[in-house]
Structures are given as structure tokens and as C-alpha cells.
Amino acid sequence: MSLYAGRDHLPFWRNLLRDAVPKGVHLIVDLPSGYALWGLEPPPAPALVLTFNRHPLYLLDLFERRPAGVLPAPHSLDALSEALQLVARGHRVGSPPTLPFDAPTPRERQVLRLLAQGYCADAIAEALGVKRDTVYTYLQNLREKLGAASQHELVLAYLDALAQPNTPNG
Questions:
Q1: 3-class DSSP state for residue 103?
Q2: Which residues pair with 26 in a beta bridge?
């Protein structure tokens, strides 16, 4: 079985989906939130990403990794099994979200991803080759666009922690 998840979540999902993942298909369980973005470089193919994070920017970032499919919070194991079978037959599952707000620029989204990974403004500036003041401008723009009062709220919203449903082992 080709199943990927964060270390603390893998045993649960392996037991639950023992025979559900078709041969040749990789299932990436995005737990903890962010694992599908940062846990695998590069992601295996073909892969279906199962995520419980429904934030549109996060989903857009997942789709940009080019998996065969992204399945946000399936309502049943049957829905997950159907998506896995579609991927096994070479079909794509899901589509990138339409952003319901003034969308952040690609650079602002890059700053948000680094912030969510724990980078401080100085480290983001160094990673992107820009000045710290430029990073602060990006962060201010993100707070305005996403309605966040602080950098902490930006990260929590992006990782969907403010509205995160109870998840197995989570």
C-alpha cells in the first residue's frame, strides 16, 4: 500500500484503509495539516491528496503541486474509495477552488506558506531575496485581504485551525 501521512497519523490511516488504496496509486493523507505541502519532496505520482483543510488558498497550493486529485474532507469512506479508483483509471479528481475574495498575489501566497512553516520575517526575506520591509508589506496586504488581525491569525486561517473539525488522531 502506498500511503503517506505524518508520523503520528500513519498507523491509524494504514489500519483504516488497509485494502482501499489500489496498486500504483499513492494516497497522501494531509495530517498534520501541511504535510501534503511540506512532507514530501517531490510528491509521488499518481497521488490523491486527502485533506481536511478547506481554506481556498491552501487547496490552491495543493493543486499547484499537481497531484492526480485533491479530496477535501470526504463525507464517507465510499467517497474516498471512489476517488482512489478514478485516480487508478487515470482520471483527475477535484478542481482548484475559485477564490471568493481579493486573491493574494503568487508572491503573497509564497510569503504565507513560509510563514505557516514557521519562518520569521527576516528568514522569509532571506529566502525570497527581498528586504524585511517588503515582507512586512506582503504580510499587511495578506492581513487586509484575508481579514486577519495578526500574523498568527493568518497562519491559523491558512492551516484551517480556526474551523478545523475533529479528525481521527487529531
A1: coil
A2: 2, 47
pTM above 0.70, yes or no: yes
Site of grid cell 505557516: 116
Q: DSSP E strands: which ranges in 80-164? A: none
CB-based contacts of 9: which residues, under 8 Å, 6+ apart?
29, 31, 32, 35, 168, 169, 170
Could you give the domains of the chain? 2-88 (3.40.50.2300), 106-158 (1.10.10.10)
The owner of cell 510569503 is 111
Rounded CA Rg of the chain: 17
- CA torsion, ordered 143, 55, 40, 6, to nearest 10 deg: 110
In Å, how far are 107, 115, 151 from 125, measured between CA atoms? Answer: 12, 11, 15
Can you tell me the distance from the alpha carbon of 111 to that of 162, in angstroms, rounded to the nearest whole number? 20
Give the whole-angstrom CA distance, residue 67 versus residue 46: 6
pLDDT, tens digit, for every residue of 41-67?
A: 888 999 999 999 888 889 999 999 999
Q: What is the pLDDT of residues 103-149, one digit of tens each?
A: 899 999 999 999 999 999 999 999 999 999 999 999 999 999 988 99
Percent of all residues in the chain with a pLDDT value above 70, rounded to a whole number: 93
